[in-house]
Amino acid sequence: MNFTEYLNNLKFKGSLEIVVSDHNTGEIIRHDEDHNQLQTWVKHSLSFLNSGKPFCTWGNHGEEVNDVGGAAYSIPHYADGSNTTLITATPWTYSNALNGLVQKRDVNLGDIMDANIPIGDPVYPFFPTKMRFGTGGLDASQNPRDDISVDATTLIGVDMSYPFVVVDRAITTQHIMLSESSSNTINKVTYSVKLPGGDPNYPYNGKIISEAGLFCDAALKVGNDYNMRTGLMLSYRTFRGIVKDESIDIQFNWSWLF
Questions:
Q1: Which tens digit of pLDDT belongs to each residue from 128-154?
Q2: Rounded to the nearest 10 degrees, how much is the dihedral formed by the CA atoms of 201, 206, 208, 211?
Q3: Which of 54, 93, 130, 133 has the fewest CB atoms within 10 Å, counting from its CB?
Q4: Do 102 and 55 contact (CB within 8 A), yes or no?
Q5: How far apart are CA 201 and CA 237, in angstroms?
Q6: Domain-by-domain residue ranges, the chain?
Q7: pLDDT number for residue 83
Q8: pLDDT (tens digit, 9 = 90+) per residue, 11-49?
Q9: Cα(215)–Cα(221) distance, rounded to whole angstroms?
Q10: Backbone torsion region of residue 7, taken as left when φ is above 0, otherwise alpha when ψ lies between -120 and 50, otherwise beta
Q11: SS3 203
Q12: What is residue 184's predicted lDDT score, i.e. its pLDDT?
């Protein structure tokens, strides 16, 4: 049985709901919900989560990357719904309470069987933490593409200026929500972020957004491919283009159902 068959047997699936609203009045302009595509890399994430290791020592939450050759770089991490706040460090650090719960990982050596992790070192989760958006989701006829490989490691139309938007785990409104299915058990989780209006300089303004990815912070090198140095792409979806500008807010609600 391959991994896709395994997920189908588990009935593990996902969807992305998109709500576009007027920034000033709150009026809903567009509502769109459709299934997502589970990427190959979600099995890597689930393997470590199910092994009881929700974190690893190699990843990214906005810090400068300087360990993959070439010039150092960073991809901005914006706080959810914010047009000003940049996040430049992981909020998770190693402590004795995480003993046995962290996979030690190195850019050159890969996974290391070593539990010696200094107290206070940053750690990076395998669970979803952020979303990113791109402009490469449409075909020549301006319809959503359906030919993106499940092995893709990055969005199609992005560059370094396209920020990640971090799911807020602390605000009072639930941006991570657990809910029941038809069997009355909790087996659905929804992650939400907002691209805000009101600021002409917001980095996604002026772009025709047509693709989205759900990411974790843990990094993974695939051969010589370092695209996931800033986080594994777990789920992906294309959709009809949305012209982002300061007049609209865009809410993305990404759900996984197990």
A1: 999 999 999 999 999 999 999 999 999
A2: -20
A3: 93
A4: yes
A5: 26
A6: 39-242
A7: 87
A8: 688 999 999 999 999 999 999 999 999 999 999 999 999
A9: 15
A10: alpha
A11: coil
A12: 63
Q: Would you list the DSSP string of 67-78?
A: SSSSS-B---EE
Distances (CA, A) of 132 to 113, 129, 183: 32, 11, 32
Q: Other CB atoms closer than 10 Å to residue 20's CB: what's the count?
A: 19
Instruction: State residue 10's pLDDT score.
Output: 57
Q: Which residues of the chain have pLDDT under 50?
A: 3
pLDDT score recorded for residue 84: 82
Residue 188 and residue 63: Cα distance in Å, rounded?
Answer: 31
pLDDT of residue 114: 82
Which residues, including other chains, have CB under 8 Å from residue 74's CB and lie 6 or more apart? 62, 63, 64, 65, 88, 160
pLDDT at 180: 60
In the chain, the amino acid numbered 32 is: D
Which amino acid type is present at position 257?
L
Amino acid, single-letter form, for residue 179:
S
Residue 114's CB: how many other CB atoms inside 10 A?
A: 10
Q: How far apart are CA 157 and CA 138, in angstroms?
A: 10
